[in-house]
């Protein structure tokens, strides 16, 4: 056999191959393919070593050598799994940089290049099936892992483990379905792990099951576009990364998640701030600019999408559903609860369609520690239905269905099921927001700072305050419907200014009011403009720069029409509310009850504006100076 090898090697050394031919060198289950057009001289030295295109082969390691006319794709390494074995085929132009090791169907590859090869990166293409296989990849230069119809389960670790700290492109090839599963016990961080930046893309489908921890994890950023990504079961987060995360397009579906759906952490200790094209950025930010994202999480206090930094949504369809209950945070000594979207920094939503649902105790649609801005074409729908969650002095968690019981607990020992809860300022200049809360203490929209509405449409049906701010609250434009079944419609714990827009506010019965300010703290309600319907009246001592009028009476579940100048607002009264209906406009308004209305539907179907009305009976109006409820109007619950 050795003589045959030597004869062939000598022939290869002295004879030029046809340019259509390929030299195949097999080392175990690894085949290196060298096109004759690229091979050049192939020196055979010391009777033991053959070198082809700078790749040295020791004679004793070579299983076979033959020449055929196989076409070779430069920069491609093909890995084919077949039950308990795997084979690797390496293109000749990258052979010197790729060292594969195969044990059964477990493939380990060391990549040594530190620059592009032929102006391109190396691509590792995976196909086939194995219930006991994996890919481990190390290196110092970026590369692509192409999934071309692979089903891979690793019973002892990660399905794909990449320790190369450079940018990795993980691509699901067009028309293929790929499924990756890791083991139920082990030390791996995820079913798919990358130490470097991970760009997940392609026009195929990738299914991931994480049985030990996360589904997909990168120690750097993750970006997603085009592909269909399904993470159907994880013990930890569905997707976990550091630095930042970006979803540009594609369809991402996460279910059966044991912790947060998507979580982005700050990689270092200090944010770099947003960088141009995110180059070398470490912010903990999440960016969603397109695609469809659906997240379902069931764990206690789990978040659908969680950012250590800011969250920016400019387009796309996002659905997040949480059902887990509350939990006690023994580090921060406070209760915590689920949220569809959560950010430790700011949240800005300027586009896209968001549907956020929470059914667990204390759950929220959106929770943020920084500011919250909604603008442009954003459409946000939030529904929470869980009860409030409270904790004992020892951290034992229970639920509360009576809102008055919450007042017995300090802030850190309770969490209410709010629609949107923001620690910083809230600014709404556009978009459409619809919020429904039904659990005890469930406020619709709450800011622990200022709240400013200048445009857009807001429609809230809440158990507790529909809109609440810890400081100044201003409405100067837009369309606002704020109904609370157990508290104030609009409640400011500072001054409250109504300067413009259309405001339809409804409170519970006395002592709650439709629009409230913290008079006990020396603040006041200022009515300076806008078109207003307030069922439950206004805060006592209000400053009414614009004249307000009291309706002689109002009826439940009845269509009314308020006409101010040439503008007509038609609205349906709720089934409950305060005894007083107050209206106001830029000019003396008229009011009719029992009308038939049509026009542009607003406030989830309880209003038309502008409206066309017919029929109805005139309602007499009298001058109104304030005081729809008792002193203070009930205030807010914190």
Q: In DSSP terms, counting alpha (H) and pi (I) runs of 4 or more, how many helices?
A: 3
Q: Biggest sheet: strands, sense, closure?
A: 33 strands, mixed
Question: Could you say which overall geometry the principal axes of the C-alpha atoms support?
Answer: elongated
Helical amount? under 10%
What is the terminal-to-terminal distance?
A: 85 Å
Strand content: over 45%
Question: By helix and strand content, what is the structural category?
Answer: mainly beta
Unreliably modeled segments: 1-16, 629-638
Radius of gyration: 32 Å
Tell me what you see in this structure:
- The protein is mainly β and 638 residues long.
- The chain has a domain at 2-68.
- The protein has three helices and 63 strands.
- The chain has a 33-stranded mixed β-sheet that branches.
- The chain is elongated and about 110 Å long.
- The chain starts with a helix and ends in a 14-residue tail after the last strand.
- Mean pLDDT is 94; it is low at 1-16 and 629-638.
What's the structural blueprint in terms of helices and strands?
Elements: H1 2-14, E1 22-27, E2 30-35, H2 36-39, E3 44-45, E4 49-52, E5 55-58, E6 64-68, E7 76-82, E8 85-91, E9 98-103, E10 105-111, E11 122-130, E12 133-138, E13 143-153, E14 160-162, E15 168-172, E16 177-181, E17 190-194, E18 198-202, E19 205-210, E20 214-218, E21 222-224, E22 228-234, E23 239-242, E24 244-247, E25 251-257, E26 262-265, E27 285-297, E28 303-307, E29 311-322, E30 327-329, E31 334-336, E32 339-343, E33 347-349, E34 353-358, E35 364-368, E36 372-374, E37 379-384, E38 388-391, E39 397-400, H3 403-406, E40 414-415, E41 420-422, E42 426-428, E43 432-437, E44 445-447, E45 451-453, E46 457-462, E47 467-469, E48 473-484, E49 490-492, E50 496-506, E51 515-516, E52 525-527, E53 531-535, E54 543-544, E55 548-551, E56 559-564, E57 567-572, E58 581-584, E59 590-593, E60 596-602, E61 607-614, E62 617-619, E63 621-624
């Amino acid at each position: 056999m050795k003589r045959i090898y030597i004869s062939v090697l000598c022939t290869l050394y002295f004879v030029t191959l046809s340019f259509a031919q390929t030299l195949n060198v097999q080392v175990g289950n690894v085949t290196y393919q060298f096109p004759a057009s690229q091979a050049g001289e192939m020196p055979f030295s010391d009777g033991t070593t053959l070198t082809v295109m700078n790749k040295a082969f020791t004679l004793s390691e070579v299983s076979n050598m033959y020449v055929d006319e196989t076409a070779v794709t430069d920069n491609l390494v093909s890995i084919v799994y077949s039950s308990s074995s795997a084979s690797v085929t390496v293109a000749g132009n990258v052979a010197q940089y790729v060292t594969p090791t195969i044990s059964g169907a477990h493939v380990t590859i060391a990549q040594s290049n530190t620059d592009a090869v032929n102006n391109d990166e190396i691509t590792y293409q995976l196909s086939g099936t194995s219930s006991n296989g994996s890919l481990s990849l190390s290196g110092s230069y970026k590369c692509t892992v192409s999934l071309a119809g692979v089903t891979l389960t690793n019973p002892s670790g990660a399905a794909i483990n990449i320790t190369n700290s450079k940018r990795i492109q993980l691509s699901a090839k067009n028309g293929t379905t790929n499924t990756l599963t890791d083991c139920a016990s082990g030390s791996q961080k995820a079913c798919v792990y990358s130490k470097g930046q991970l760009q997940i893309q392609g026009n195929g489908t990738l299914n991931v099951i994480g049985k030990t921890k996360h589904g997909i994890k990168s120690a750097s950023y993750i970006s997603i576009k085009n592909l269909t990504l399904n993470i159907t079961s994880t013990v930890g987060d569905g997707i976990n990364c550091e630095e930042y995360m970006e979803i540009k397009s594609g369809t991402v579906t996460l279910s059966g998640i044991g912790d947060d759906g998507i979580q982005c952490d700050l990689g270092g200790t200090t944010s770099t701030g947003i960088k141009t094209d995110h180059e070398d950025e470490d912010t903990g930010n999440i960016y969603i600019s397109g695609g469809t994202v659906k997240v379902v999480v069931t764990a206690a206090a789990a978040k659908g999408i969680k950012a250590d930094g800011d969250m920016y949504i400019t387009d796309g369809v996002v659905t997040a559903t949480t059902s887990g209950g509350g939990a006690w945070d023994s580090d921060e000594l406070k209760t915590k609860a689920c949220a569809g979207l959560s950010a430790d920094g700011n949240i800005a939503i300027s586009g896209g369609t968001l549907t956020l649902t929470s059914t667990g105790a204390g759950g929220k649609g959106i929770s943020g520690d920084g500011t919250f801005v909604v603008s442009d074409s954003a459409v946000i729908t939030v529904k929470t239905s869980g009860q409030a969650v409270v904790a004992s002095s020892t951290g034992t968690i229970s639920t509360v269905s009576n809102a008055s019981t919450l007042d017995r607990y300090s802030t850190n020992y309770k969490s209410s099921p709010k629609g949107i809860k923001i620690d910083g300022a809230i600014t709404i200049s556009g978009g459409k927001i619809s919020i429904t809360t039904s659990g005890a203490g469930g406020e619709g929209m709450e800011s622990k700072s200022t709240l400013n509405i200048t445009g857009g449409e807001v429609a809230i049906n809440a158990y507790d305050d529909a809109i609440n701010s810890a400081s100044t609250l201003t409405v100067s434009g837009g369309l606002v419907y704020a109904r609370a079944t157990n508290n104030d419609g609009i409640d400011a714990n500072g001054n409250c200014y109504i300067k413009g827009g259309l405001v339809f506010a409804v409170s519970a019965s006395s002592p709650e009011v439709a629009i409230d300010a913290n008079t006990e703290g020396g603040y006041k309600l200022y009515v300076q403009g806008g078109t207003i319907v307030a069922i439950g009246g206004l805060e006592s001592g209000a400053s009414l720069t614009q004249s307000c009028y009291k309706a002689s009476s109002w009826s439940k579940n009845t269509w009314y029409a308020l006409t101010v100048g040439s503008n007509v607002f038609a609205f349906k009264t709720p089934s409950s509310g305060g005894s007083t209906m107050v209206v106001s406009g830029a000019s003396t308004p008229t009011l009719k009850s029992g009308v038939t209305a049509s026009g542009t539907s607003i406030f989830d179907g309880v209003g038309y504006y502008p409206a066309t009305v017919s029929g109805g009976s005139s309602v007499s109006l009298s001058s109104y100076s304030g005081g729809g409820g008792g002193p203070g109007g009930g205030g807010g619950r914190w």
